[in-house]
Design goal:
Elements: H1 18-34, E1 71-80, E2 86-94, H2 99-107, H3 112-116, E3 119-120, E4 129-136, E5 139-144, H4 153-167, E6 174-179, E7 182-183, E8 186-187, E9 193-194, E10 198-199, H5 208-211
Parallel strand pairs: 5-6
Antiparallel strand pairs: 1-2, 1-3, 4-5, 6-7, 6-10, 8-9
Helix pairs in contact: 2-4
């Protein structure tokens, strides 16, 4: 048999060495496997080429604002400058109305329009509402900072304003007064001091509807 001669390829003189050739081959292999391309401009990648983490759904949540509560009327009682009696006016408050919102409106005093109508409040402007308890069995206990200012009938009118305003709310018949947390006696319309809860009947002389007199009945046989 003729002997097989093994041929060896030698790189030409001055050509790249084996190490350089291997390095270039590996670089080409890695570049092809990763799909790295150099583009002159940004381009859109198909979804199957985008890394998984970048396709995750955003967890950012949007806060939905609750709609504002509708405005509803509530009764507040002021004083008529001419007659010195109580007058019912309507104020708009957020639903549902309550003893607190009614008292807060009352303590604001009359509006410009109400002043033009000849109305006033006998409650001192410095009076603050400190707390409310109830209603319990028809009684609401209110705690006020003070009731300084008017005296005599003026003070009784201020108390009547509060009683009528509070008892205009459902399930409230009487009001028990506290001042800075302490139970104190207050006068009714007749000037009689009491530490018991007061209702509208205790201030009836200031209510025009309660003081209206009817015509006397005709005499017998008339």
């Amino acid at each position: 048999m003729t002997g097989i001669r093994r041929l060896r390829c030698r790189p030409p003189a001055g050509g790249p060495t084996r190490a350089v050739v291997v390095a270039l081959a590996l670089a080409a292999l890695v570049s092809g496997a990763c799909g790295i391309q150099h583009d002159e401009q940004a381009r859109t990648l198909p979804s199957d080429k985008v890394p998984f983490g970048l396709l995750a759904t955003s967890t950012t949540t949007t806060t939905t604002q609750r709609p504002e509560a509708p405005a509803v009327p509530t009764s507040v009682y002021l004083v008529d400058n001419e007659t010195g009696q109580l007058v019912e006016v309507q104020r708009s408050v957020s639903a549902p109305p309550s003893v607190r919102t009614a008292l807060q409106e009352l303590l604001k005093g009359p509006t410009e329009r109400e002043l033009d109508q000849g109305l006033r409040s006998n409650i001192a402007s410095a009076t603050e509402l400190l707390g409310i308890v109830g209603p319990e069995n028809g009684v609401v206990t209110i705690d006020l900072s003070d009731l300084t200012g008017p005296t005599g009938e003026g003070q009784r009118l201020a108390l009547a304003q509060i009683v009528y305003t509070v008892t205009a709310q459902p399930q409230v018949d009487r009001v028990l007064f506290r001042f800075q947390g302490e139970l104190k006696e207050v006068p009714n319309a007749a000037g009689e001091s009491t530490g018991e809860p007061l209702g509208r009947s205790d201030f009836a002389p200031f209510d025009p509807a309660a003081t209206t007199t009817s015509a006397p009945p005709p005499p017998p046989g008339g």
